[in-house]
Every structure is written in structure tokens, then in C-alpha cells.
Design brief:
The complex is a heterodimer of chains A (about 260) and B (about 270). Chain A has 8 helices and 12 strands. The longest helix of chain A is centred in the middle third of the chain and has 18 residues. In chain A, α7 packs across α8. In chain B, α3 runs antiparallel to α4, α3 packs across α10 and α6 packs antiparallel against α9. Chain B is built from 11 helices and no strands. By secondary structure, chain B is mainly alpha-helical. Classes of the chains: A alpha/beta (about 260), B mainly alpha (about 270).
Amino acid sequence: MTTAPAKLALTGVSHRFGETVALAPTDLTIAPGEFVSVVGPSGCGKSTMFNIIAGVLTPTGGRVSVDGRDVTGRAGEVGYMLQKDLLLPWRTVLENIVLGATLKGGASRKEREEGVALARRYGLGDFVNHYPAALSGGMRQRVALMRTLAMHRDVLLLDEPFGALDSQTRFAMQQWLLSVWERERRTIVFVTHDIDESVFLSDRVVVMSPRPGRIRRILEVPIPRPRPVSCLTTPEFAAIKREILDIIYEAPPTIEGVPQETGA
Amino acid sequence: MNGRGALVLKVVYPLLALLLVIVVWHLAVAYYEIPRYVLPAPHDVALHIADDWPALMKGFGVTFIEFLLGFILGAGAGFVFAVLMDAAQPVRGILYPILIVSQAIPIVAIAAALTIWLGFGLAPKLVIVALVVFFPVVVNVLDGLASVDADLLKLVRAMGASKLQVFRHVKLPATYSPLFSALKLSATFSVTGAVIAEWTASTSGGIGAYLLQANSRLNTSGTFAAIAFLAALGVVAFLLVVLTERLLTPWRTSSTARRWSRAYWRD
């Protein structure tokens, strides 16, 4: 798929909780600066894979490497962001941005200056001294992403970061994320339920399926960048979305194991 | 709310309420011709306060010190208890029964025993006030520690934080709000605790002891003067807690960090 040396690589990574196989042996290679989305229904092992890459869960098999270094089960090697912004209410925006440095023994003047520069660059310069409670949901998620950026990790792991936002804000945040990504040149692994979101943002979309959780297929998104809003309605976009839907709904969707009517 | 509106709500209305009580009290005493040894008129109490000001102020000081030291002692002990209980399951198992028993025994009963063990001085008063604060603090701080979002803990772990760092930057600040709820609740109760302790045995001359003496001499004006001072003490105790809370948890009342705080960024 890619010829560049891998930034992030999963080799035969698998995980079981007791008898249940949460993630069947999985291989995935991501190139430097690549934007890869992971989609799939619940129970497909997305979260397990996410936690393994984040290093908060040690897989029962296989290894994770960043730049060829084995980082299996090691936390702090990749930047990490969730649907909940998880900002600390007692810290200002700036103090939240530099949280990574604080947790490693204290944020220096230089790190705080970098934090302020980051806030200014991405439109929150007037809010560095605000507490999170005074910000809107979209602003809070931007602060959460800046906190992740300020950790200086090449790989960013984002788990449905915009899942809790309304659709207008979510769309604005997607465009904002693309502009950040283009500027910062980080490698992004983006977990989402939203297929439109995955296609709009990514170079490649990893489609997973449940029982056992595994990678079903990896699709390239051939839409050229920069991607204008109008690309959402192009035939290429529709085609790739269709392809993903076909993979996910190959078997008729079920609710708790009961087959559904397939009339529509 | 604008500044003037807030001032009216916080200062003018309470003063009006106080004035109303005094007026009704005065009229009732005059209209029903209540004898002074049953219920003295407000001005009798005021006269008594003026006459006996030094003794009352001394009493106020003594009881205030009992409250303050006991309060800090109890809150500190409660906080340490809660942190230990949160840290380890066996510790929790051992400390929990002690905690419950500390609440089940009536304070008055302990007060008598404490006099035997610790004498007539400051020590038994501190212990009683501390016991009043202890339980609410333990329960609320435990709650605060337990309510920290599991995803947040996962996040800071993924950021490479040590256990100590997690405690210092995530768990500890999360206890402030529930801690201060407990302190506000127990501030006025603590004053009652100090009074009960003084009633049991006191040679130190706090307001509680003053009240007891005035009452035994049917000096009703003196009793009411003491009550007025105790009410004032309760209010002072409460306001002190509120003030400390405002200083330590600025994010609850303000949208930005204070200009003079370390958190505030200046270019």
C-alpha cells in the first residue's frame, strides 16, 4: 500500500478478554504524515486497538512499533484524544494545553510560550487565561487537540473527537482538523462511527468488523487534497462511501443477534 | 447580575431581615408586657452587651480559637483518612468501621469522657469540634476521589503521568468542591460542638461557658447576649469557609484566572 518506512506499525496484534477474542491478529502499517480513519460497528475491536496503540492496554499477542521502536504496552508514546474533552476544570486553557509537560515534572516558560503560540495560531489566543467552563463545546475540543499537539508526539490517536458536537460545529471542526494536520504534518489515526467523516478526512479508511474484531478491508480515498466542501457530493465520494457501507452491511444489520427485515 | 444588584441581594436584604426580627421582637415584648427575666427586649440585650463587652469579646476569642483549631484538625484528619481509604482497599476496610462508630456515639457522651482524659483545657474542645467536622469531610472527599472520570485517569496515564502526579494534578483538585461543601455544612455545627464542649467542663471562659453562667443566674439578658455572640461566631465561621473556598477554587466563581495568580499568563 505504501512504500515509505512505517511511522506506526501493528504486527500480529491480538487481544482476548478471557474466552472472548476482542481483536483477532491484526497487521496495520501507517506511513509518516498519513491520515488514517478506522470505522466499524460497535464490538469490532476499534476501542481495543485504540487502547493498545495508546499503550494503556497490553495486547495478549503481537507488537506495536513507532519508527521501528517497540512500544507495546508503553504509555506516553503517542498523543491521545477522546470524544470527551477531559479538560481539567481547575486549570486555565493554557494550563490544560501544557498538561503533558506539567505531568512530566512541570511546564517551563518555553513550554508555556509554545502553548500560547499554539492557542494563538488556532484562534484561541484571547482565551488562554479562561477556565474551560467558560468555553463552548467546539472550543473545548480545540483545546483538547492542542493539548495533544503540545505533547510533541508524531502520532496522534483521536477517538471520535467530534462525536459529541452538533453537526454544524462538527463539520467546522473537521475542516479545522485538516488545516491543523496539513500544517503540523503529524500522523493521525482517527476512530469514528461516521463514514462521511472518515472519507472526508482520510488518506485511507480501515473498515473493521465484529466477532471476532478484525480488519475487514483497507480502502484508499483517491480524492485529491485540499478537499473542498463540494467534494462531499462528488461521485467519487459517493462511490467510496457506498463501498464502505457495503462492507459493513454485507450481512444484514442485527440488533442483539436478531436478524432485521431487509425490505428497504 | 450587575454589581449593585448583587450588593442589594447579599448585604441589604439580610440586614433588612435582621432589622425585621428585632422590630417584631421589640413590639412583642412591649405589647405582651413580657417580664425581663423571661424575654428581655432588644435594647436590654444591647445594654448588657455594652456593659459586659470585654468579657463577651474575650469569650468570643476563646470559643473562636476552639472552633478554628478544632475545625482545621478535624478537616485535616478527615482528608487524610479519605485519601488513605481511597488508596487501598484493606485500609478502607479497617477505617470504615472506625468512621461509622465515630458518628454513632453522641458527642455529649464523648465530651464527658474527654474531660476525664484530657482535662478542662483546650484539648477536649478541639477533639469535639474535630469530631463534628471529621465525618462529613471524609464522606465528601471520598466521593470526590471516586468521582474522577475513569477516561480522564486513562488519558493522564497515557500521557505518562506517575501515580503521584495523577494524585497531585487530577485527584487532589477534584476533592476541593466536595470538601468545601462539607466544610460549609459543618462550620456552624462546629460552633455548636464548641459550646457543648464548654458546657461539659470549662475553666477557660468561652461564650458557651458565659451562657451557662448567665443562665444559671436567671440573667436572661446575659443569655441572649451570649446567643447573639454565638450567632455572630457561626456567621464568621461560615464566611471564613466561603472566603477560603473563593481563594482556593477560583474556577467555580470566575471565568478567567486571577491576574495576580501564577496561572495567569502575561506576555
